[in-house]
Amino acid sequence: MTSSPARPLTSLGIVVPLHNEEENVRPLVDELLETIRGLEVPAVAWLVDDGSTDLTWKRIEERLDAEPQLLCALRHPCRRGQSAALLSGALAARSSHLATLDGDLQNDPRDLLRMLPHLAEADVVLGRRRERFDPRNRAWVSRLANRIRRAVLRDPGTDSGCSLRVFPRDAFLRLPAFDGMHRFLPALFHSAGLSICEVEVGHRPRRSGRTKYSNLGRLLRTVPDLLGVLWMSRRAIRTDGVTCVEPRRQQRERPLSQAERD
Q: Which of 12, 129, 149, 242 could, after both became Cys, cross-link 43 (CB 3.0–4.6 A)?
C-alpha cells in the first residue's frame, strides 16, 4: 500500500459481464441479492449481457421485474469483450465504487462482504483465490502469466485472473480503455498512484457452460497488451499528491474619489 484512501464508500455498483451463461443467471442473481441485502451501503447489481446468443438475456429479463430496485441490465448488440462490458456497466452506474466478478458462478459475490471493509485501508481491494478449480493446464498458464506480468510491470497483484475487485468508479473511468484492460487493472491502478491490498477469496468449479478463452488465444492477446501496458505505465502522468493554494483576491483598482484626493 502506498497511501491512505481518500474516497469514502457511499454506494456500490456490482458489474457482472455475461456471455452465454443462461443456466447461471438465476443462481447468480440469488447470490447477488443476498449479498446486496447484507451491505451497509446502497448497492445495485448491473448485469451486462455481452452479445449472448443463447437465452441469457431472457433469463436476465425474468429477474429484473422481481427486483427492479436492486437489479439493472445492459445488453450489447454483439460480443464486444469483457473489458467493454465492464466499461458499459461503469458508465451506467452512478455509485462511488464499483465491484466486479465473473458471471460463471466461480466467484462468490458474498466474498464482497469481507472485501469492502478493507477500503478503509486502501483505494483498491483485489481478490486472491485460495484454491483454483480450473483445469490443470489453465491454472499452470495463469500462474506463469502472473509471474511474467509482475516481473515486467511490477504489478502488486498476485492473482490477475481473479475478477473479484472493488475500486473507485471515478478512478476506473480515468484509466485508458482498451480491449483486454480487465487483465491489467491492478497494474493500471498502481501506475495511477492508487493504494492496493489483497484479500483471500473462494473459488468454485464451473457448474455449467464453458470457458470463453483458450490458453493459446489468451496468450496471443496478452503478450502485445503486456507491452502496451508497460509503455503506458512508464509514460503515465501522475496527478496525485498535488496541493492547490488559492491566491488571495486583490482589490480592484479604482479611481480616487474627490474626498480621497483632498
A: 12
